[in-house]
TrEMBL record:
Subcellular location: Cell membrane
Keyword list, A-Z: Cell membrane, Membrane, Transmembrane, Transmembrane helix, Transport
Main location: membrane
Matches recorded under PANTHER family: HIGH-AFFINITY CHOLINE TRANSPORT PROTEIN, HIGH-AFFINITY CHOLINE TRANSPORT PROTEIN-RELATED
Keyword flag Cell membrane: yes
Membrane-spanning residues: 18-35, 55-76, 96-117, 156-174, 195-218, 238-258, 270-294, 326-343, 355-379, 399-425, 451-470, 476-496
The keyword Transmembrane belongs to this UniProt entry's keyword annotation: yes
Membrane topology recorded in Swiss-Prot or TrEMBL: Multi-pass membrane protein
Database matches in InterPro entries: BCCT_transptr
Protein's name according to its UniProt entry: BCCT transporter
Amino acid sequence: MNFWHVFGLESADTGEKLLFFITGGALLALAAIGIRSPQVLNDTFNEAFGWVLTYFGWWFMLLGMVLLVFSTYMVFSRYGHIRIGGQDAEPEFDLFSWLAMVFTVGYSGSIIIWGVGEPISIVNSPPPEPLPVTGASIEALALAFMFIHEVFPGLAMWYPPFALAFGLIIYTRGTDSYKFSSMLKVFLDDDRYKLLYWTVDLAALIAIIGGVAAAIGFSAQVFAALLDTVFGVPPTLFTYGLFGVLGLVFLGDVWLGLRSGIRNAARITVVLMLVTFALLLAVGPTLFTINLGLDAGGVWLNNMFRLSLYSAPTAAGNWPQQWTSFWWAWWAAWGLFVGSFVARVSKGRTIRETFVCLVVIPGMLLWIQHSIVGGWVLAPGYVGPVSDAFASGGIPASIATAVTLTPLAPLLGVLLILVIAGYVVTSLDSAVYILSSITLGTEEPNARNRAWWGVLLSFLGVMTLELPVFDAMQAFPTVLALPFTLFLLAIAYASYVTAREYYREESTLANEDTLITSANTDSSLPQGQDDDD
């Protein structure tokens, strides 16, 4: 059998083959170091993480606000009516499937993992004095920060620019290659820039891997904690087994493809998620949850921009950067493949419709979900034991402890494992779909290449089980996404140029059609008679 055929690279050019093997080799090297010397990898990434936050935390905050202004303008201006794929494009997926794929791919298990981790961490280690919001309880402030980071403006900052770029440039304008570098050709369409194009695609692949690695790592350690604390089974062995099962499900999805595999996995995950959160609201501290969610919602909406730009310049340390800058870096890494995947499944929808599906509807769901999770772990009777578990074992231990304190703990534990597993599968599905697409330059990559990307990413899942502390995973997206952030401004500009040119062309064609119709109408009247007769 042909060597290139085995890797799904038989139609790839030299640059695409190099992209695959260089990125895959770097990924394997990272996994090997993490498995053999986890403490070394942990220390190295944490040092890099601290350096990036200290010197570039401000950059992520500023960039986020610039992208928020850009996304808002593009969606609510005249360009919001542009249809992804052209004005004659038809939607490929029904409404529920479309929403399910966007939601499960875009928001992953962080709803549960950081929905517990961030509020409980902030309550135990609050912002330095003076607090960014006075008069609010620390519980409400902690949950308000969670809303800032994973509801709004976080959603509107980081996902829409990528979705707009792919939707407008790749699908509406049209391009010869399905790559991130194709967006540069809007204003740098010259063979002299081939090396730059290749470098951009390499940086994009590495940034995507950083975001996916963090998500897999967080999920793996939460699996282990739930299995150990809730069910009393050997965590490492069973977590490896669980990842093996997920690998089989993933390979099945790869074989079935986008329409049957990823779509069905997303639909099942959404149903499980709705059942799980309904159960948690019913059996948890319901009244406290509702009241805290409303209180925190008020703090959030009344202080949105204050909390988004909070940098505490006169305080020691980098508390705001540890949260906001970390989140924005993770959004940037995650948004690379989420935005491109969203554009892929949104063909036939307008920019404004895509924004509603990507930001507005998920934003409402996320506000409800984070209110439920935050109220659960911050309630009296829960917050003390969960805080103690957090101090000794980090976020995974705090989640497991909260489950054991809740009625119907075994059922809730099973549902949480299934929901997080569903997010892992759908995120991995979409990530390898986009990794393979960018590598091969096609929106329909072959199953063999996608499977290899899945195998490579699975090594990261194994490696993260060996890391000594949960916090090490925070460094992956923050460090690996930094080199790619300048490209975000370039694709935002390219998206605007593309939308402007497309709008002008459509307007010109519409005017010409009107003139032709008017001329035909006039010529059809009897000679010597006008339409006033």
